[in-house]
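Incident log, support desk, overnight shift.

02:14 A customer reports that sequence design results differ from what the structure should imply. Their input is reproduced verbatim below. On-call engineer (initials T.W.) acknowledged and began investigating.
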């Protein structure tokens, strides 16, 4: 038991203590306690100042609706597609189409969408002037529309692949084939039979990632800065602006705003819980109605089309980024540039070298440490249902980053800790570890334990079994978990911005900083670099098992 609790205790402290400290560092200034800035007594004046901010309620409405709409539509599309095609060849094809999207950072996908749907974007160029009559870009407020619809679309096309892949991981844990055969024998269509017999069990397995999507969508900053409305901006963006204000007294207002963001995210989660209850009631009524709905081809094909279209939009956006990154003169409404040049790359690469090196070092270090910790946790059994680790480990996924990262920044400055690589690495690890454990836990549990039983029978110790049996057989799974952690770290914007204090820059912070400018060629270069860095991690995860186990096909699992 001591060995089991040793690593679990370390991880509990490593994740739980910074979150608690960060919350304390946010709550104190929100109520006026920040001696370094003259805050030495409790007061509610900062909340009054927050309430007096113009259009605050509108900012909250945008953030709240984005969380519910993004999660609801993403989950509904994944649910309908899985219900209609699970176990089919089409399901496998869409899986291979969607899986690479995990390697694309949110900001890069958002930039690609901007270059597609903007008034001078590729979509308008395809139909102008022949179908629209436009010889100059129309005066449309897209992206950054007041309702935040473009931001919701950008989040949906990125959250659907995430929910789809966690659904894939959960499918082996439900009796899909037996349930489908039973529902078909009773005359139910694929979708209706799946929803009644399989979906309640499946949703229970993916509930945590769904809540992670709710939390992320309600408090996202980088995508909101690129695609979201500006006047007023979503709440998280406004809080970030207050944090970055040159007037240090704005830290009090930002802290009060961070607590408001926490309350808004909790309200979104409570609303989602209510929607779960409504969905449960509807499913029970559907089950008891006796209606079969055997012909659901239109609904199935629609869900499949949306999945394919979403993936296609992301890839087309990346292609548009590539064209812009090498474009010379490209007047509207020309479909292609008048000329191509490598000058944007030649100008950007020398400046981006430090950011790329920092990104790779930071992401590689955090992913490697997280992988070692995840292996240790799973081996020692610290990641089990009902274990305290399960509750604390995933807190960074469902806790708005603003709510405790800002507090960590205030505490680090107050305690005299300068922005440094080790400090930023530690904060990145808090966010990377949960994703690595999520990625590795299912393959770890699915491995046939009879191999270990046989090894134990010939005198192998538990450590020898781990190093010589389990880890070699899980090489691909471990490398994939590393690649996921690498991509998560490379895409982290807010923790890098706040804890790095502008002194430590990554390719993500540089790319998002360019969003306020108008240089599309530079944006194209940086967004592609931001995509290529995590893609390299997934490429390594795919190729290394083939090189290590050449001629041993059964080991490449």
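02:41 Re-run completed on a clean worker. Output:
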């Amino acid at each position: 038991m001591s060995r089991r609790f040793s690593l679990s205790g370390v991880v509990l402290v490593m994740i739980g203590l910074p979150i608690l400290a960060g919350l304390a560092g946010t709550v104190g200034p929100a109520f006026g306690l920040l001696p370094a800035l003259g805050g030495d007594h409790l007061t509610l004046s900062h909340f009054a100042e927050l309430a007096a901010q113009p259009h605050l309620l509108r900012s909250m409405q945008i953030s709240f609706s984005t969380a519910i709409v993004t999660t609801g539509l993403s989950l509904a599309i994944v649910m309908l597609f899985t219900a209609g095609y699970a176990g089919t060849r089409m399901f496998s094809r869409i899986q291979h189409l969607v899986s690479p999207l995990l390697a694309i950072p949110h900001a890069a996908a958002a930039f690609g969408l901007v270059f597609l749907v903007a008034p001078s974007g590729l979509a308008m160029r395809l139909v102008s002037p022949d179908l629209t009559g436009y010889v100059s870009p129309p005066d449309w407020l897209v992206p950054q529309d007041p309702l935040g619809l473009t931001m919701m679309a950008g989040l949906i096309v990125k959250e659907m692949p995430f929910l789809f892949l966690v659904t894939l991981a959960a499918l082996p844990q439900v009796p899909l084939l037996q349930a489908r055969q039973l529902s078909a024998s009773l005359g139910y269509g694929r979708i209706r039979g799946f929803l009644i017999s399989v979906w309640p069990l499946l949703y229970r397995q993916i509930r945590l990632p769904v809540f992670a999507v709710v939390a992320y969508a309600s408090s996202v900053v980088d995508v909101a800065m690129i695609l979201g409305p500006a006047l007023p901006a979503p709440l998280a963006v406004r809080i970030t602006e207050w944090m970055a204000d040159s007037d240090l007294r704005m830290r009090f207002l930002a802290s009060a705003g961070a607590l408001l963001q926490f309350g808004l995210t909790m309200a979104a989660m409570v609303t989602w819980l209510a929607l779960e209850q409504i969905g449960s009631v509807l499913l029970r009524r559907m089950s008891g109605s006796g209606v079969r709905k055997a012909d659901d081809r239109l609904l199935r094909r629609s869900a499949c089309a949306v999945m394919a279209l979403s993936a296609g939009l992301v890839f087309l956006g990346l292609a548009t980024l590539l064209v812009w990154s090498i474009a010379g003169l490209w007047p509207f409404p020309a479909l292609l540039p008048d000329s191509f040049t490598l000058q944007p790359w030649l100008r950007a690469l020398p400046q981006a070298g430090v950011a790329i090196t920092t990104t790779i070092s930071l992401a590689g270090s955090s992913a490697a440490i997280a992988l070692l910790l995840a292996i240790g946790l799973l081996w020692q059994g610290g990641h089990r249902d009902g274990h305290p680790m399960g509750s604390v480990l995933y807190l960074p996924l469902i806790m708005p980053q603003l709510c405790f990262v800002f507090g960590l920044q205030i505490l680090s400055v107050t305690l005299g800790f300068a922005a440094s690589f080790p400090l930023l690495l530690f904060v990145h690890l808090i966010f990377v570890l949960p994703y690595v454990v999520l990625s590795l836990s299912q393959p770890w549990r699915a491995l046939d334990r009879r191999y270990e039983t046989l090894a134990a029978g010939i005198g192998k110790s538990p450590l020898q079994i781990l190093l010589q049996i389990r880890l070699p057989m899980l090489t691909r799974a471990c490398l994939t978990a590393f690649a996921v952690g690498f991509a998560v770290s490379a895409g982290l914007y807010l923790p890098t911005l706040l804890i790095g204090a502008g002194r430590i820059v990554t390719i993500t912070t540089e790319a998002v900083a360019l969003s306020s400018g108008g240089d599309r060629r530079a944006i194209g270069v940086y967004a592609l670099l931001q995509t290529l860095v995590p893609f390299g991690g997934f490429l390594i995860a795919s190729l290394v098992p083939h090189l290590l186990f050449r001629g041993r096909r059964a080991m490449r699992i």
